[in-house]
Amino acid sequence: MTAPLDNILAPPAQQAMIAGLFLAVGWWVVAWQNHRRDARLRDERVADIQRALLAEIRAHVAALEGQTLDDAIAREALVARLAGGGHVPILPHDANDRIFRAIVADVHVLPEWAIDPVVRYYRLLAVRGALAQDIRSNAAEHPARATEMFRDYLTLNDETLSIGHKAMIVLTASLEGGRTAVEALFAAAQRHETARIAASLPVELAELRAGLSRRSLDPRGR
């Protein structure tokens, strides 16, 4: 009994074709396995980078919380002492960015939702460090200039702390649930902001109307 292909190909050619088919399938399977392995290794590296950055940011944010003055009176008192030339506040020298500097060439491998808060946080750290150096350099001979820079430094501290918290929240969500968790986080933040605006808008509109009313009654238009 002859095989269906015997009328088209000789048995040796059929064997060669079958061998080639198995070889092609083998190549495809190996390529698929390599792709899965590379993807797994890439995902593991991205997760390792996120964990390392989260640990570094968390450690510095905790220190920054201890350095931040929430009391407006205490902040103004510190500013006044600097303006009078009687006290130069201790400003940190360390940028706390060793891990970030070590992986900065690979920062593009981070998920897109993590890149912005992380890069913004470390950029603020760099600006903060440069501003601290300028304050120390000007404090003795130019106290007025140093005082203005110190006010900016306090504001920058607040912004750095806020972005640091955001970076920590995003990295934690990314590590725990990936894109789904981060999208849920952003959606919840959007709902919160919408509710805040809705709650505050009537008061702001009332204040605006009251201001316009007072201005219309002022013959000088002020």
What does this 3D model show about the protein?
With 222 residues, this protein is an all-alpha fold. It contains 5 helices and no strands. The longest helix has 75 residues, at 143-217. The radius of gyration is 31 Å and the shape is elongated. The mean pLDDT is 76.
Structural class computed from helices and strand pairing = mainly alpha
How large, in whole angstroms, is the Cα Rg?
31 Å
Fraction in beta strands:
under 5%
Average pLDDT taken over every residue: 76
Order of helices and strands: HHHHH
Quick one: how many beta strands? 0
Largest sheet: none
Keywords:
5 helices, 80% helix, 222 residues, elongated, single chain, mainly alpha
Briefly characterize the structure.
With 222 residues, the protein is an all-alpha fold. Helix content is 80%, strand content 0%.
